[in-house]
Amino acid sequence: MCVAGDAQILSPPMNLSLQDQWKKDAAEAAAKLVESGMLVGLGTGSTAAFLVSALGRRVALENLRIVGMPTSEQTAKQARALNIPLTTFAEHTEIDLTIDGADEILPGPLFLIKGHGGALLREKIVAAASKRMVVVADESKIVERLGSLVSVPVEVVPYGWQATEKKLARLDGKPALRLGADKKPFMTDGGHYIIDCAFGAMHDPKEIAHHLDHVVGAVEHGLFLKFASEAFVGGRDGVKALKRQ
To answer: What is the CA radius of gyration of the chain?
Structure first.
């Protein structure tokens, strides 16, 4: 029995935009990969929310027995409302399968930009602890070069963030502190700020990731390289499965 406040979580709006329908199609295709007995990493963001909803239906209708590892408080709340049992790294340190969204996908190597939903650190921790990571997205997220559409989020500690921002500027990242709706610095679930870096279309995302890895004050960045092994992409021609090459 769900309370009234959970109704929107349990029943996504029926009148979806075309893009949201593509996201939903991709998420539902990926949800079929989940089998009983799995520990599943649950991503964050609009596409991941469709995935969690699909798994919730399978739990209710198919008696699917899984345990979820949420990447944000938002995802954890949705999963609890759908009666998906949750766990923590204190109990499990290896995840069978993680399914998450992405802000950009580079076909071939399946390099990603993630973190515009504000959960990139926890998402990367979960991805790194997973035997397999699958990405779900709509076709608008496919790019020829990472950075073509969106900036690279960098999660930073609040202490001395101005000095960290200066280091990011030296990398030609054109850094901008992310603000919330209240015009104050956006705060992640882990208590960090996010600085968005507009590198533009990247010739070598691995080199930029290497430099970001060594910025003092930066906790993690949104370049997810060599994490995803497969992507389900919804679009005009249905859902396409892309394998890492």
So the answer is: 18
Phi and psi torsions of 242, nearest 5°? -105, 130
Q: Examine the residue annotation and report whether 123 is marked as an active-site residue of this protein.
A: yes
* Residue of 28, 104, 123, 165 with catalytic role: 123
Q: Which residues pair with 233 in a beta bridge?
A: 137, 240
Identity of the residue numbered 132: R
- CA pair distance 135, 104, nearest whole angstrom: 10
Low-confidence ranges of the chain (pLDDT < 50): 1-11
Model confidence pLDDT, tens digit, residues 66-99: 999 999 999 999 999 999 999 999 999 999 999 9
